[in-house]
Specification:
alpha/beta, Rossmann fold, 5-stranded parallel beta sheet
Length: 169
């Protein structure tokens, strides 16, 4: 089973993926880590630059993700493009999508703490909306995890979701 964790900027995707990994022991592939291999520092800006560089090869990022998946059981966090999700669904027998969601106010607060400026977070948000149709990607999710709750409550929700809904563990 390939578990894809999707969500908007600062929605808690990486944390949800880490907690899923903790429970399932599946290997974790972080898309942002792969992009950083090709890029400099700002993943969002660099992803756009890499996309521009690879215009004649739209599957380059999918291939990089695919190279990192060495088993039929894996977590892929941070997919931003519907086409990559669709290719994973074609390549693997079982792919499930979990969306990390959070109130916009909480995301803005998280983003401004990391970006140190609300304006920088808002700029990243606009760029994401221009580059990716994240709402469509999130709508493909079989389940959602609200990351606004306390960490222990969110982790408990993930365990219940994996155990009862996806029959893992």
């Amino acid at each position: 089973m390939i578990i894809c964790v999707v969500g908007k900027n600062k929605s808690g995707k990486s944390k949800v993926a880490e907690w899923i990994q903790e429970y399932t022991k599946f290997p974790l592939v972080e898309v942002s880590t792969l992009v950083k291999k090709f890029a400099n520092s700002n993943v969002r800006k660099d992803l756009q630059l890499e996309k521009n560089k690879h215009q004649d090869d739209p599957d380059w990022l999918f291939r990089e993700i695919r190279k990192e998946i060495h088993t039929d059981n894996c977590i892929v966090s941070g997919i931003r493009e519907l086409s990559i999700l669709e290719k994973l669904q074609q390549a693997f027998k079982e792919v499930v999508v979990i969306a990390a969601i959070v109130d916009d106010e909480v995301r803005e607060e998280r983003g401004s703490i990391i970006a140190e400026k609300v304006e920088e977070f808002i700029e990243d948000e606009k760029r994401d909306q221009e580059l990716f149709d994240l709402d469509v990607l999130i709508a493909k999710a079989e389940a959602t995890i609200d990351t606004s709750a306390e960490a222990e409550d969110t982790k408990a929700g993930i365990v219940i979701l994996l155990r009862d809904f996806f029959k893992i563990g």
